[in-house]
Design goal:
alpha+beta; SH3 type barrels; 2 domains; six-stranded antiparallel sheet; 6 strands; about 30% strand; elongated
Length: about 150
C-alpha cells in the first residue's frame, strides 16, 4: 500500500498547477509572474555584471516604463544555518532586450487533478491508520455449536 501511495503522491505532485501563456509586454500587468526570454546581448551583460547565467527570467514584473522593465528574480537560497530564505535580485532591462514574455496562469484541470490526488492519498492514509484496509480476525463462533452453549 505504501508503494502505491508514494506513486500517487509523486504523480500528482509532478503535474503542477501552472502553465505559461504567451502575452505581449504592453498587456502584462505589474505584479504578474512571468517568464521572459531575453536577447543574447542581455544574457551576456547579466552574466558579466551579476554573474547570473540566465536565458529566461522567471520572476515578477515589478515596474514598467518606456525605457526599462524591472523584474524580481529568485536567484539563490540563503544558508540553511540562517533559515534558508530565498534571495531575490532585481534586474532592469530595456524592453528591446525582452524577446518574448509568458504570463503564469493557474491551470484549473491540473490543479483539480492535484487536489483530487492529494485527497485520495489522505483518505488512504487515514483508512490505513484506523485499520479499515486491514481485515481483523474472523469470528471464531463464540464457544461451539449453539446446542452446546449454556443459555445464561
Amino acid at each position: 500500500m505504501t508503494r502505491t501511495l508514494a506513486r500517487c503522491v509523486a504523480l500528482t505532485a509532478s503535474l503542477g498547477c501552472y502553465t505559461y501563456v504567451p502575452a505581449t509586454l504592453d498587456v502584462v500587468p505589474v505584479g504578474a509572474r512571468v517568464r521572459a526570454l531575453i536577447s543574447t546581448e542581455a544574457e551576456l551583460r547579466l552574466r558579466d555584471s551579476l554573474g547570473l547565467d540566465l536565458r529566461a527570467l522567471n520572476g515578477t514584473l515589478v515596474e514598467r516604463d518606456d525605457a526599462r522593465l524591472l523584474f524580481e528574480v529568485h536567484t539563490a537560497s540563503g544558508s540553511s544555518t540562517f533559515g534558508g530564505q530565498p534571495l531575490y535580485q532585481r534586474i532592469a532591462l530595456p524592453p528591446a532586450d525582452v524577446l518574448r514574455v509568458d504570463v503564469r496562469r493557474v491551470n484549473r484541470f491540473r490543479t483539480g487533478v492535484l487536489v483530487a490526488g492529494l485527497a485520495g492519498a489522505a483518505v488512504l492514509i487515514v483508512a490505513g491508520a484506523i485499520g479499515v484496509l486491514r481485515p481483523g480476525t474472523p469470528d471464531q463462533g463464540g464457544g461451539g455449536p449453539p446446542e452446546l452453549r449454556r443459555p445464561w
